[in-house]
Amino acid sequence: MLDPSLPLPSSGRTFSARRRVRLADMDETGRLRLDAVARFLQDVAIDDVQETGWGVPDHLWFVRRIRVELRVPFLSDREVGLVTWCSGLAAIAAGRRWSLAGDRGGRIEVDSVWIHLGPDQRPARIQSFGVYAEATGGRAVSTRLELPAPSDAAPRSAWALRSTDVDLHGHVNNAVYWQAVEEVTRAAGVDLRAPLVAELDYRDPIDLADRVELATLASGRDIALGFCVGETVRAVARVTPAE
What is the pTM assigned to this prediction? Predict the structure, then answer.
Protein backbone atom coordinates (compact mmCIF):
# COMPACT_ATOMS: atom_id res chain seq x y z
CA MET A 1 0.00 0.00 0.00
CA LEU A 2 1.36 3.41 -0.98
CA ASP A 3 1.57 5.86 1.90
CA PRO A 4 1.24 9.58 1.11
CA SER A 5 1.22 10.39 4.85
CA LEU A 6 4.97 9.86 5.30
CA PRO A 7 6.55 12.96 6.83
CA LEU A 8 9.41 14.87 5.24
CA PRO A 9 12.56 12.89 6.09
CA SER A 10 14.84 14.29 8.78
CA SER A 11 17.91 13.19 6.84
CA GLY A 12 18.75 12.18 3.30
CA ARG A 13 18.21 13.89 -0.02
CA THR A 14 15.19 16.03 -0.76
CA PHE A 15 14.67 18.12 -3.88
CA SER A 16 12.57 21.28 -3.97
CA ALA A 17 11.13 23.29 -6.84
CA ARG A 18 8.41 25.81 -7.61
CA ARG A 19 5.95 25.91 -10.49
CA ARG A 20 3.65 28.68 -11.67
CA VAL A 21 0.07 27.66 -12.43
CA ARG A 22 -0.40 28.75 -16.03
CA LEU A 23 -3.54 29.15 -18.14
CA ALA A 24 -3.21 25.66 -19.69
CA ASP A 25 -3.01 24.09 -16.21
CA MET A 26 -6.44 25.30 -15.08
CA ASP A 27 -10.05 24.42 -15.81
CA GLU A 28 -12.68 27.06 -16.53
CA THR A 29 -13.05 27.83 -12.81
CA GLY A 30 -9.33 28.32 -12.17
CA ARG A 31 -8.85 24.92 -10.47
CA LEU A 32 -5.48 23.21 -11.00
CA ARG A 33 -6.33 20.08 -12.99
CA LEU A 34 -5.09 16.57 -12.16
CA ASP A 35 -3.24 16.20 -15.46
CA ALA A 36 -1.38 19.45 -14.76
CA VAL A 37 -0.44 18.15 -11.31
CA ALA A 38 0.87 14.98 -12.97
CA ARG A 39 3.07 17.06 -15.30
CA PHE A 40 4.47 19.00 -12.34
CA LEU A 41 5.30 15.75 -10.53
CA GLN A 42 6.93 14.23 -13.59
CA ASP A 43 9.01 17.31 -14.41
CA VAL A 44 10.30 17.74 -10.86
CA ALA A 45 11.21 14.04 -10.63
CA ILE A 46 13.17 14.32 -13.88
CA ASP A 47 14.98 17.44 -12.65
CA ASP A 48 15.92 15.56 -9.46
CA VAL A 49 17.41 12.47 -11.11
CA GLN A 50 19.20 14.51 -13.75
CA GLU A 51 20.93 16.47 -11.00
CA THR A 52 22.14 13.31 -9.22
CA GLY A 53 23.10 11.34 -12.34
CA TRP A 54 20.25 8.82 -11.91
CA GLY A 55 18.48 10.02 -15.04
CA VAL A 56 18.81 9.35 -18.76
CA PRO A 57 20.68 8.04 -20.65
CA ASP A 58 22.03 5.52 -18.14
CA HIS A 59 18.88 5.19 -16.03
CA LEU A 60 15.24 5.19 -17.08
CA TRP A 61 12.29 5.32 -14.69
CA PHE A 62 8.74 4.22 -15.51
CA VAL A 63 5.93 4.80 -13.07
CA ARG A 64 4.21 1.63 -11.88
CA ARG A 65 1.71 3.00 -9.41
CA ILE A 66 0.76 6.41 -8.03
CA ARG A 67 -1.62 7.62 -5.31
CA VAL A 68 -2.63 11.29 -5.08
CA GLU A 69 -4.31 12.64 -1.97
CA LEU A 70 -5.93 15.96 -2.82
CA ARG A 71 -6.32 17.25 0.72
CA VAL A 72 -7.04 20.92 -0.04
CA PRO A 73 -7.93 21.58 -3.71
CA PHE A 74 -5.89 24.20 -5.58
CA LEU A 75 -8.70 26.60 -6.51
CA SER A 76 -7.11 30.05 -6.56
CA ASP A 77 -3.46 29.05 -6.03
CA ARG A 78 -1.15 30.39 -8.72
CA GLU A 79 2.18 29.08 -7.46
CA VAL A 80 3.03 25.61 -6.20
CA GLY A 81 5.97 24.58 -4.03
CA LEU A 82 7.02 20.94 -4.43
CA VAL A 83 9.33 18.79 -2.32
CA THR A 84 10.21 15.25 -3.41
CA TRP A 85 12.26 12.42 -1.91
CA CYS A 86 12.75 8.66 -2.08
CA SER A 87 10.14 6.86 0.06
CA GLY A 88 11.32 3.26 -0.27
CA LEU A 89 13.45 0.76 -2.17
CA ALA A 90 13.23 -2.63 -3.84
CA ALA A 91 15.67 -4.56 -6.01
CA ILE A 92 14.55 -2.93 -9.28
CA ALA A 93 12.18 -0.23 -8.05
CA ALA A 94 12.03 2.84 -5.85
CA GLY A 95 9.30 4.86 -4.22
CA ARG A 96 9.01 8.59 -4.72
CA ARG A 97 7.07 10.98 -2.52
CA TRP A 98 5.98 14.52 -3.28
CA SER A 99 4.47 17.14 -1.02
CA LEU A 100 2.79 20.09 -2.77
CA ALA A 101 1.72 23.37 -1.18
CA GLY A 102 -0.04 26.23 -2.96
CA ASP A 103 0.26 29.92 -2.27
CA ARG A 104 -3.44 30.07 -1.33
CA GLY A 105 -3.54 27.00 0.90
CA GLY A 106 -3.83 24.14 -1.58
CA ARG A 107 -2.23 20.87 -0.45
CA ILE A 108 -1.55 17.57 -2.17
CA GLU A 109 0.40 14.54 -0.91
CA VAL A 110 1.59 11.92 -3.39
CA ASP A 111 3.35 8.57 -3.20
CA SER A 112 4.43 6.38 -6.11
CA VAL A 113 6.51 3.39 -7.21
CA TRP A 114 8.81 3.53 -10.24
CA ILE A 115 10.52 0.67 -12.09
CA HIS A 116 14.23 1.18 -12.76
CA LEU A 117 15.52 0.34 -16.26
CA GLY A 118 19.05 0.34 -17.58
CA PRO A 119 20.15 2.01 -20.83
CA ASP A 120 18.95 -1.09 -22.72
CA GLN A 121 15.42 -0.34 -21.39
CA ARG A 122 15.32 -3.60 -19.43
CA PRO A 123 14.67 -3.83 -15.65
CA ALA A 124 17.95 -3.33 -13.80
CA ARG A 125 18.95 -3.76 -10.17
CA ILE A 126 19.52 -0.56 -8.23
CA GLN A 127 23.13 -0.37 -7.13
CA SER A 128 24.79 2.18 -4.81
CA PHE A 129 21.62 4.23 -4.31
CA GLY A 130 23.03 5.97 -1.24
CA VAL A 131 22.20 9.45 -2.46
CA TYR A 132 18.54 8.53 -2.15
CA ALA A 133 18.49 5.53 0.20
CA GLU A 134 18.98 7.45 3.45
CA ALA A 135 15.67 9.26 3.11
CA THR A 136 13.75 5.95 2.94
CA GLY A 137 14.42 5.09 6.58
CA GLY A 138 14.77 1.46 5.52
CA ARG A 139 11.28 1.20 4.03
CA ALA A 140 10.67 -1.29 1.21
CA VAL A 141 8.31 -0.86 -1.74
CA SER A 142 6.37 -3.38 -3.77
CA THR A 143 5.70 -3.32 -7.51
CA ARG A 144 2.48 -5.28 -7.00
CA LEU A 145 -0.55 -3.68 -8.63
CA GLU A 146 -3.45 -2.97 -6.29
CA LEU A 147 -6.39 -1.78 -8.39
CA PRO A 148 -8.64 -4.53 -9.84
CA ALA A 149 -9.33 -4.67 -13.55
CA PRO A 150 -12.77 -3.39 -14.62
CA SER A 151 -15.50 -5.98 -14.94
CA ASP A 152 -16.65 -7.15 -18.35
CA ALA A 153 -19.98 -5.44 -17.64
CA ALA A 154 -18.43 -1.97 -17.36
CA PRO A 155 -19.59 0.28 -20.23
CA ARG A 156 -16.89 1.20 -22.73
CA SER A 157 -16.28 4.29 -24.82
CA ALA A 158 -13.58 5.08 -27.37
CA TRP A 159 -10.67 7.28 -26.27
CA ALA A 160 -8.97 8.88 -29.23
CA LEU A 161 -5.22 9.40 -29.02
CA ARG A 162 -3.29 12.27 -30.59
CA SER A 163 0.29 12.38 -31.79
CA THR A 164 0.97 14.99 -29.08
CA ASP A 165 0.08 12.40 -26.40
CA VAL A 166 3.23 10.39 -27.14
CA ASP A 167 6.53 11.29 -25.49
CA LEU A 168 10.21 10.64 -26.21
CA HIS A 169 9.90 6.98 -25.15
CA GLY A 170 7.28 6.29 -27.84
CA HIS A 171 4.38 5.68 -25.44
CA VAL A 172 1.45 7.75 -24.23
CA ASN A 173 2.88 10.02 -21.54
CA ASN A 174 1.97 9.36 -17.90
CA ALA A 175 0.25 12.71 -17.50
CA VAL A 176 -2.08 12.09 -20.46
CA TYR A 177 -3.90 9.31 -18.58
CA TRP A 178 -4.98 11.93 -16.07
CA GLN A 179 -6.75 13.86 -18.83
CA ALA A 180 -9.06 10.87 -19.20
CA VAL A 181 -9.51 10.68 -15.43
CA GLU A 182 -10.49 14.36 -15.41
CA GLU A 183 -12.95 13.87 -18.27
CA VAL A 184 -14.64 10.77 -16.86
CA THR A 185 -14.97 12.03 -13.29
CA ARG A 186 -16.43 15.34 -14.42
CA ALA A 187 -18.88 13.58 -16.74
CA ALA A 188 -20.00 11.46 -13.78
CA GLY A 189 -20.78 14.60 -11.78
CA VAL A 190 -17.91 14.23 -9.30
CA ASP A 191 -16.94 17.51 -7.65
CA LEU A 192 -13.22 17.90 -8.35
CA ARG A 193 -13.21 21.02 -6.18
CA ALA A 194 -13.57 18.79 -3.10
CA PRO A 195 -10.91 16.65 -1.35
CA LEU A 196 -10.39 13.25 -2.98
CA VAL A 197 -8.02 10.34 -3.48
CA ALA A 198 -6.97 9.45 -7.02
CA GLU A 199 -4.94 6.34 -7.84
CA LEU A 200 -3.52 4.99 -11.08
CA ASP A 201 -1.87 1.64 -11.79
CA TYR A 202 0.17 1.51 -15.01
CA ARG A 203 0.20 -2.09 -16.25
CA ASP A 204 1.53 -1.89 -19.82
CA PRO A 205 2.33 1.03 -22.13
CA ILE A 206 -0.18 2.46 -24.58
CA ASP A 207 1.09 3.35 -28.06
CA LEU A 208 -0.33 5.82 -30.55
CA ALA A 209 -1.57 3.06 -32.89
CA ASP A 210 -3.57 1.35 -30.12
CA ARG A 211 -7.36 1.55 -30.23
CA VAL A 212 -8.12 2.45 -26.63
CA GLU A 213 -11.45 2.14 -24.86
CA LEU A 214 -12.29 3.48 -21.42
CA ALA A 215 -14.22 1.02 -19.25
CA THR A 216 -16.01 3.14 -16.65
CA LEU A 217 -17.96 2.20 -13.56
CA ALA A 218 -19.44 4.95 -11.37
CA SER A 219 -21.01 4.41 -7.97
CA GLY A 220 -21.93 7.70 -6.37
CA ARG A 221 -18.67 9.65 -6.08
CA ASP A 222 -16.56 6.50 -6.55
CA ILE A 223 -15.20 6.16 -10.09
CA ALA A 224 -13.30 3.17 -11.52
CA LEU A 225 -11.70 3.52 -14.94
CA GLY A 226 -9.90 0.96 -17.08
CA PHE A 227 -7.76 1.80 -20.12
CA CYS A 228 -8.42 -1.16 -22.42
CA VAL A 229 -6.88 -2.25 -25.72
CA GLY A 230 -8.90 -5.19 -26.98
CA GLU A 231 -9.03 -7.74 -24.17
CA THR A 232 -6.03 -6.35 -22.30
CA VAL A 233 -6.18 -3.71 -19.57
CA ARG A 234 -3.22 -1.35 -19.89
CA ALA A 235 -3.97 0.84 -16.86
CA VAL A 236 -6.56 1.23 -14.09
CA ALA A 237 -7.57 4.38 -12.24
CA ARG A 238 -9.80 4.98 -9.23
CA VAL A 239 -11.15 8.19 -7.74
CA THR A 240 -12.84 8.23 -4.31
CA PRO A 241 -13.87 10.94 -1.86
CA ALA A 242 -11.34 11.71 0.85
CA GLU A 243 -12.24 10.21 4.21
Answer: 0.95
